[in-house]
Amino acid sequence: MTGLSTQSTGQSAAKIGARLALPEAPLLLATILLVHLPSLRGVLDSFGRFYPIAAFALGLFLALRYQRGRLLFSLAVLALAAWGPLAARLAGRQMIFDAAALLVPVNLLVFSLLPDRGVLTPSGWRRWGGILAQTLVVAILARTGPLSGDAFFRASLLAPGIVQLVGLPAPAILAFVLAFAMLSVLTIREPEGPGRGALWGLVACGIALTIGKPGVGATVAFSTAAVALSVAIMETSYHQVYHDALTGLPGRRALDEELLRLGDQYVVAMVDVDHFKTFNDTFGHDVGDEVLKMVAARLATVARGGKAFRYGGEEFSILFSGVTAAEALPALEAVREAVADTKFTVRKRLRPRRKPSPLPVRERSRHSVITVSIGVAEPGGRNKTPDQVLQAADRALYQAKEQGRNRVVGPSA
Questions:
Q1: Helix 285-299 vs helix 325-341: angle between axes, to the nearest 10 degrees?
Q2: Domains plus CATH for the chain?
Q3: Candidate list 190, 314, 315, 363, residue with the active-site label
Q4: Which residues, other chains included, contact 81 with Cβ-Cβ below 8 Å and sequence gap of 6+?
Q5: Residue 175: is it exposed, middle or buried by C-beta count within 10 angstroms (0-12/13-18/19+)?
Q6: Are 24 and 228 within 8 A, CB to CB?
Q7: N or C end of the chain, less CB within 10 A?
Q8: What is the DSSP track for 204-227?
Q9: Which pTM was predicted?
Q10: Phi, psi (5° rounding) for residue 381?
Q11: For residue range 63-75, what is the model confidence (pLDDT) as tens digits?
């Protein structure tokens, strides 16, 4: 039992890791190899002719098409960093480069934390103004007070060895570390949230800035940052379309498409939360939502390669590919027992009719038993198409309810 639990935990960790790293991590690795390996210099020169234009054009299209102000503001910052500070450094304007190295991670972090409220709205105009103000301040300092600017942007906050190793001034290194830490937390908590694209974009910007000079390598790295931000938008849009927002499970559209890809041997299980309407009416929709999330979490652990979906309301579906109903039934029995064995505590506040002296409000806890009924079907007989199998599983589900609920009814019942 412990071995199975460890294996399941390892598989879950692997899925989470893949969810957080794909496809951005391979993209970043390819960028690192492309800009640093001398043997790929010819490929880099050819690739760099069209990649930046395609990367920023893709980001601009997605930002305008999906009304993503956060993406558009971030692209503006990346464009300023890609075609300004490195050239300024080459021309001896070190302060502009140091300022950009500090401001890029700060801006990416701030845009990720702020809500997305449009581009040409009052909030959007303030953000455009913030970008413009930063640009003007850096330009003015570079022209009128480069020494004071250098003192600020190159403050000795870290050991000289670290600064020399990284190739960036200490304030910029600290800004990158802080932004990376906070964006990592945001990404882990919400893998399809705004922190994801900014996190991978930040890493790509670090690659570009540590190159330290203008050229195709730095431009390609900044362009990869733009692609990472765009990929995050596409991942978010896909998740919103194909996943249920409440439970995190794939939704009805994902189920319909998955049914079309099934082979000749598969199993469909329909799952319904018992007495859910009564429970919802008694304790409220917020508690009902917690019940659905708990059930979804248990169904997601089903064995034999089953995949759980939110069908709608209090109904769920589980698909098994390449197995028979006889092979899937033990896994469904196990997940049914897992739901029933979960202790679900309902807390309801007791408020007195009269306003009492200032005493803490008491809480009453109720332990409720949540159960599910499951109907199972597979192809055969009159059930030839996936839709017919789905309907057969639904009929089996109603049989399970008629027989007393909290049970699994197979196709032979």
A1: 140
A2: 13-242 (no CATH), 252-349+363-409 (3.30.70.270)
A3: 314
A4: 100, 104, 205, 208, 209, 222
A5: buried
A6: yes
A7: N
A8: HHHHHHHH-S-SHHHHHHHHHHHH
A9: 0.69
A10: 65, -125
A11: 988 888 999 999 9
